[in-house]
Amino acid sequence: MTEYFIGIDGGGTSCRAALADGNGTVLGRGKSGASNILTDPDNALKHIAEAASLAFEAAGLRPRLSSASATLGLAGNNVGDAVSYVTARLPFRQADIVSDGVIALQGAIGDQDGAIGIVGTGTIYIIRHNGKLRSIAGWGFQVSDLGSGARIGQLALQESLLAYDGIHPMTGLSEAILAGFGNDPEAVVDFARLAKPGDFGRHTPKVFDFARQGDAAAIRILKTGAAGIDEALDAVNGITGGKGRLCLLGGLAALYPEYIAERHRKRLSEPLADALTGAVALAVKAYGARLEVRA
Amino acid sequence: MTEYFIGIDGGGTSCRAALADGNGTVLGRGKSGASNILTDPDNALKHIAEAASLAFEAAGLRPRLSSASATLGLAGNNVGDAVSYVTARLPFRQADIVSDGVIALQGAIGDQDGAIGIVGTGTIYIIRHNGKLRSIAGWGFQVSDLGSGARIGQLALQESLLAYDGIHPMTGLSEAILAGFGNDPEAVVDFARLAKPGDFGRHTPKVFDFARQGDAAAIRILKTGAAGIDEALDAVNGITGGKGRLCLLGGLAALYPEYIAERHRKRLSEPLADALTGAVALAVKAYGARLEVRA
């Protein structure tokens, strides 16, 4: 009987699955809804099974989840209770849950040493050195994740208030942000008081847009963010010795390179594959090898 | 019958009252508990009356609150509902509620033009120019109040995580902060996620302490904070034309001068009087003058 391997890339908005054979050849893919194991573990379980079943169907196979071995890359993997709850209820023969960063690293750099920086709403750097994994940053926007979408958006709101008060010159960026709040600084403050990372992050594309048009405040904010990323990449290089692939991933990955230091920019390369491909490769590595040993 | 005037300086931890005659001569003072009109207006009312009664007693007088005219400087004065509720229930003959900043300004610079910067858990600058009041900053630590105790404490926590990750060098400050959280970065993050301004601010004295000992991270954080204060004072000077008294008040006022720019440091002077004295002076100005006109 053929052994099947499932990779899952799950997050707050969608869940993607890939089905592979023992050689790691992807046979089919499937996609379903949100799979946030922290906020809604039962729905996450439903969508994980659904995406996996769709991957079987896309491969022209009748879904047999209980015969498949899976590696799931899920945000919230570091919260023990949620992981225990979900792991105990997964429909697969055997499965492990790793972080979304670990499958992204595997996809981006394959089996070699190297590092990725995921620059999206948050920022986290994941390094494989001498085969061992390590992450830095990624602690959240309140006290970490410099250069992240959340931090850039927050700096943009701050900038609009500095301009409102005449502490900084008013620029197009600040005008646009204030206009978005009815030119009422109190509305900016009320928003910021309760804003989640994604709420701040929604203001970040504006910063890149205005920076492209030469807006001094937007450029200064992005330079501040890029300096935070440069420092973190220096620390990454301190671990890797500057060896192996270095990839930026995440929503801001394509926007940042022109702002970061030349020493890092020239080291960047495109990811080899996506996180879903990384997940299925990890499933084959984890369970394919073990099955061989048993056989 | 002698007209009496009451000044109130009320906040989250205590309520102070001063009683003056029509010449503004302070006859007695009193102190009672918290008077936060937002979180507990009834208790605030109780403590306002209590402090005022004690001021009468300290002057050797039987309390006659209903005969006195009062100016109350209270935090939360910008929240209309709370002000209406409290104003309608005050025990005085007539009274007005102004911000704690306005009585501080009156106390610090008297009747002349000038400005104050209140640098405590938050930061706000209040300016009197050609007799008109204006404030800048003071929007809260999420998107304003650069250099405030809350921001400095937040930067110190951030610094400890940057050091933990090897992004910045580990210094005594970061070591001390991490040790305070059991050397568990997750504990720092959990704290920061829910921290109120005062929670962050409690880490700020450590930053000044370590900076005095030459700690590079602490000095960098204070330079960042001082740069925010310098920029705001530049904006203040833009309004005042650099004329009139300029006073720093608040919990960090005595600590900051050595870090701020020379152009501002040389302009600083000691406040003429405290906020309570400012409140009673405003009461005499507001109601003493009016009574004279009527007489």
Report helical residue fraction of chain A: 40-55%
Extract low-pLDDT stretches of chain A.
291-295
Strand order of the largest sheet of chain A: 3-2-1-4-5
Write the H/E string of chain A, N to C.
EEEHEHEHEEEHHHHHHEHH
Q: Quaternary arrangement of the chains shown?
A: homodimer
- The CATH class of the largest domain in chain A, by name, is Alpha Beta
What is the strand content of chain A?
15-25%
Of all chain pairs, the largest interface belongs to:
A-B, 28 and 28 residues
Number of domains of chain A: 2
Q: End-to-end span of chain A in angstroms?
A: 13 Å
CATH superfamily of the largest domain in chain A: ATPase, nucleotide binding domain
Domain ATPase BadF/BadG/BcrA/BcrD type (chains A, B): 6-266
InterPro entries (chains A, B): ATPase_BadF, ATPase_NBD, Euk-type_GlcNAc_Kinase
Organism (chains A, B): Rhizobium puerariae
Protein name (chains A, B): BadF/BadG/BcrA/BcrD ATPase family protein
